[in-house]
Structure formats: C-alpha cells, structure tokens
Amino acid sequence: MQKYTEVKKVAIYGFLGNVLLLISKLTVGFMTHSQSMIADGLNSAGDVFASSMTYIGNYISSRPADHTHPYGHGKAEYIFSLIISFSFLLVAFAVFRSSLNSIIVGTRFHPSLWLSVTAFSTIVSKFFLYAFSKKVSVRYDSLLAHANAEDHRNDMFISSLTVISIISGHFGLFLVDNISGILIALWIAFSGFKIFSSAYNILMDTNMDENLSKKFCDMIMSIEGVDHLDEVHAKPIGLYFLLIVKISVDAHISVYEGHNVARKVRASLETENSIKEVIVHINPAQYHPKRMNDIK
C-alpha cells in the first residue's frame, strides 16, 4: 500500500538526518557548554527514537488482517504515536532540568562559529524533512507522519532559539541561552501533549466528530424506506471506522423488505473511504405520544 511506503520513507529519512544532527549538536554543545545546543542535541536523541518508533509502528500497522486481527493492525499507528509522545515529554523534562540548573549555577557558554553552523544546518535540513513529512501526513491522514512533521517543525523553532542565544552570547547576554533552553523544553512538552491527545482519543474509541456524524446521518435519511434514525456509533479501527447504525422502518413491511432497506443503507455508507464496515440494525417504527401529537 502506497501510504505505508511513504510513511516508511518518512521514518528512514528522519532517522538518518536525526543521527547526524544528534552527533554534531552534542559534540559542539559540550565543547562550548551551550545549554541551548545541548538541549537541541537531547531533542535530536528523542527524534532518533521517534523515527525508530515510526518505522516499527508503520511496519506493524501495514500488516493485513488475519484470524486474530479481523480488522487489521491499524491501531498500531496510534499506539506507537503514544510512545513517541512520551519520549517528547521525557526529553522536555531533561532539557528543562538542565537549563534550570544552568541558571542557578550561572553556567556560561563559549561563543563559537561551529555553534552557528550547526544551528543553521539544522534549520535547513529540518525544513526539508518537515515539508516531506507534512505532505505525507496530509495526503494519507497518518498520525505517525504528522508526529514526525511536528517534531521537525519543533526542531526548526528550537534551532532558531539556539541562533538567538548564540548571538546574545556574543554580546555577553549568557542568560538568554539558559532561558532559550527552558522555552525549548516547554515547546517540546506542548507538542508531546498534542500527539498524546490525538492518539489517546482514537485508542479510547472516541466517537467521530460532529461534522462527519451529520454527513453520515444525512446519507442514511436519504435512503427510501428509513422512517427515522435511532442511533449512529463509530468505532475507530486504525484509520477507518466500524459504523453501527440503528434505524426504524415501517413496522408493517416484510422482513425481506426491511433487510432490503438495511442493504441500501449499508451500500451507501460503504462508498465512504473512511468506513471499513457497516452494521445495520432494524427496529419497527414506534409512534410516540409526542410524534402522534405532531401528526394531529
């Protein structure tokens, strides 16, 4: 499937790029004692882990359905996205603690041309990685690719702060370096929470959003023979939905005619790419007192 091939590329390109940046950032960061560059390097360590999780999660979710997983392995994408969000939060904590300690101790870094070169190289490389990951995430609605795109965008922001701290260091404003590290930590934590929230909602079988629900309800009510709609529930299955529909039909029609209405409802809904399977339950139409009053 094309989607899994493209997400695999996102993981591989991200892994290779992040390994190179990790080595260069930490080497330069520890040589110059720059907290923002060290923070940037620790973030790249988290990026390497995230790229690895993307590759593994994409591999598992691409496996076809089998007798133990009749709806496929799509939810692996969200499980591994959840793991990635945890890595973001751990990195954020480590960076925050390191930067706060530097403020207390009063650590200063040594301005260097290599700091500027490393920071600008990161911004350029991460821009291309972000553009590719974002394109894949939008085209294939992939949370794993989206998590990587968010990660690459964060790196551009982080490296921009690093550039600011380097420039400030040349003017003796070393506190900016430590404050930049704290801002980096908060941004990473925010991104991690957003990814966690998206994955959590899917794994907890949260119902579809209101716009999608209204669209499906309108499709159901447009089918001839549907008296009214009782309930519509959607169970997320990876990237798709298992739709459970309860409709009421004329109580006096035959069982065959009732099931024919259900077949039309199912056929209409299954034309949607986001729906994996539709289960339709038929009830006899009941006229409640309120409805009878409306008729009169």
Verbal overview:
This protein is mainly alpha-helical and 296 residues long. It has two domains: 2-203, Alpha-lytic protease prodomain-like (Up-down Bundle), CATH 1.20.1510.10; 210-295, Alpha-Beta Plaits. 70% of the residues lie in helices and 10% in strands. The protein has nine helices and three strands. The protein has helices at residues 2-32, 35-61, 76-105, 113-140, 143-170, 175-203, 210-221, 255-269, 289-295; strands at 228-237, 240-249, 275-284. It has a three-stranded mixed beta sheet, with helices on one face. Strand 1 and strand 2 (240-249) form a beta hairpin. Helix 2 (35-61) runs antiparallel to helix 5 (143-170), helix 2 packs parallel to helix 6 (175-203) and helix 4 (113-140) runs antiparallel to helix 5. The longest helix has 31 residues, at 2-32. It is elongated and about 85 Å long. The N and C termini lie far apart (57 Å). Mean pLDDT is 80; it is low at 288-296.
User: First CA to last CA: what distance?
Assistant: 57 Å
Q: Shape, please?
A: elongated
The CATH homologous superfamily name of the largest domain equals Cation efflux protein transmembrane domain
The amount of helix comes to 55-70%
Number of helical segments?
9
CATH class wording of the largest domain:
Mainly Alpha
Spatial arrangement of strands, main beta sheet? 1-2-3
Please, how many domains?
2
Question: What order do the SSEs take from the amino end to the carboxyl end, as H and E?
Answer: HHHHHHHEEHEH
Average residue pLDDT? 80
Measured by DSSP, the beta-strand proportion falls in 5-15%
- Uncertain segments are 288-296
Total strands: the figure is: 3
Query: In CATH terms, what is the architecture of the largest domain?
Result: Up-down Bundle
CATH topology of the largest domain: Alpha-lytic protease prodomain-like
Radius of gyration: 26 Å
Instruction: Report on the biggest sheet.
Output: 3 strands, mixed
The structure class reads mainly alpha
